[in-house]
Protein 1
Amino acid sequence: MKNYCNVTDPGMEDKANGSVDTKSPVENGQLPDPANWGVADVVNYFKATGFEEQATAFQDQEIDGKSLLLMTRNDVLTGLSIKLGPALKIYEYHVKPLQTQHLKSNAS
């Protein structure tokens, strides 16, 4: 099981404004490569980041880390059958940054 700690994202609103706190799995001070995540890791990541209800969509669609890294904005907005607001936040604040991190770490 991955260790979770708080990571503050200045682009995220607080819960009083309708958004969620941001938490990320951290190993040795860095996020682990999502390409190595199983379905349960993806589900646990989204539960830990405040998307408890939406995390089940990733389970239902059997989205593992490799699949997560291949997802487009349209996949998240329409393919997971979740409400638009949470889907936008999931893509912009989580999926896209995880994809960027993966590309940077594999470019070196």
Protein 2
Amino acid sequence: MTLVTKHSKLHYYSDGDIIIIVGKTTFLLHKTIIGLASKVFQDMFSYASASTNEIPEIMLDDESPIIFEELMSYIYPNTHVSINWNNVSEFLRIADKYIMESILMAAKAFLEREFRKNPLPALRMAEQHGFKELYKETSKLILEKFLEFKRSQTFNQLSVITRMSLTAKYDEYTKALSNLSKIDFTSGYLHCKECKSTSEHDKEISEKFESRVRQVQILPLPLPPTPPSITRKILFEAIGNNLCDKQFMDFQLPRKFKKQFGSFEPLECKKNKKDQDKKYYLFIELENN
């Protein structure tokens, strides 16, 4: 005896050949359409028990009828629902559970387009579903305003490993920033042949970088540290137009900067190629499980 109280308003088709009961809602669907979307459902059809009207029946007690109806609206060609921040997490969960590759890819594409608007949930979902590139790109935005994001309740929804990784990376950055005044930017620099006075040029470069270091080291504490991308931008501003200046900026400074702060990268998520964002960001990466 079925306990269903209502039919789905959108997905109860008179020519359907499979009944799926979700909670207290009945869906009369088509095996061909559902089977193409999900290998798991295709296999489940073989074990479906016949109902009183001889149509095979499957019960999904652990799913939400509202989310399932939205999922069917996404799959069926006669209805439409957009993936959004309200349903993307559940779409990903169901897509993983029932091996729905097209849903998984569509939800991933949504996150790649929209992660800037909601970095913390995007990072959580990227970790849960192994989206390595998205995880890396989203971490850049969070580390840029880490103290602000850390105060958010959503931050605690991240895994312990991710929270620890973000905190450790940001702590490394602030420590490197506080020690920046100790760096001799010209040590080991081989001037180009055209440089008339290497000692004078070293002095000139050092004075410029002493000024830049004071600019990025916001003192006295506890003012929030300069964001990573701003620190890099200030340090990498051109110091002059001659060949030796350019050589210093192209080779010496990147080497010194990486040794002090580690790797920085621009936002490179493939769905944002059109964005002319020239900033470089700190980041963490998703470890292999």
